[in-house]
Fold this protein.
Amino acid sequence: MLNAETYITDTKGIGGQIRSKYEDFYVEEIPETVPSGEGPNTWIWIEKVGRNTLDVVLDIARDLHLDRKRMGFAGMKDKKAVTRQWLCISNFEPEQIEGMKDQFHNVEFLKITQNQKKLRIGQLIGNKFRILIRDIEDPESAALEAQNALEKLAQVGTPNYYGWQRFGKPRSNTHLVGKALVENDLAKTVGAYIGNPHSDEPGWIKEAREAYDEGDLENSYELMPTGMRYERMMLRALLKEQKKKETLDDNSYRKALLSLPKPLSRMFVHAYQSFLFNKAVSERSAMGINKFREGDIVIDNEEHLIHDTSAEKLQELIDNFQAHPTAPLYGSKVPLAGGALGEMEQKVLDEEQVTLEDFKCPKMPKLGSHGLRRAIRFKIWDVSAQATEEGVLTEFSIPKGCYATAVLREIMKSEAV
């Protein structure tokens, strides 16, 4: 996991591989509420295979000739997986989609119903995972090792690292796009997304990115595969600007960024915050992931700051998973911890040569962030590990916004991608 350096469990790790097949990585959303069956909004329980949530939403909106803003979902689910989640279309009759439900690539509509309320980002409890770890020499002993790690995590908490999905893989650059935004350099921001080829990308994609880096927008657009829909969106915007003016300026690059779906463009600064957060979590977790330290900023399970509480009481709340030490998702208004912990958090910023004020992103203020404090750990429940003929089958549930790969990293003691 990018910028993650600390382990909590002392098991040796079972190694192995995940995602050899899509079916090896199963995710099911745990919703806050289930639809009532009545109301003006259509809810769809889908199963998708090998597809990004946002891509599926865009495809449905396109084929139904709907504004993307009428589509809702609670959370982004893994692409390299079999996943189940709710989607919502506001002010829409179920009959209008019945005849089209089998036409979306690698998407099955398991249930179509109605509800009074719309579905919005964050409206879920968490996610259930069933993940097969393959290429294990001795599944029986490995399953015991994995169970021990899972039980330890259930006892003290799992480091709340952001997984590779936050940054992209193999081309982990989303945080670099975000850093360029924080540095207030829009040309660099767009270039980091469209250009900047990665060594592990296919040759034809490298060529398209190299053409952009060389300033040949038309050739970059022609070479860019149709599946790279977001790069092509930005290139179209830039080509349109290029026809109007000899030299692209900040306004040109701003229009390119605005051509993207808002959930994607907002991810850039979030990814950079996540990169810095992982470093801060690594440093803080090494001091005791379930221990209160002088200077800690502590939050409850509703993410409210806990004030005017004794160290003894805070430790009791932490022991019972009613409160958690935090690290900063750095932003323009986020408070840093006190004492030595605050110095550690400031050092993370200093090493990157950025300040909290930079997160205002003055040239794109709507993509900036005030920041917040985020728990350094998360609770895990319903844990199990079983030996199978194919490897070790793990099962566990975790809260929304947390990453299964943080759990797998502790089990495998290797990169879980």
Q: What stands out?
A: DSSP finds 14 helices and 13 strands in the chain. The CA atoms of residues 190 and 313 lie 48 Å apart.
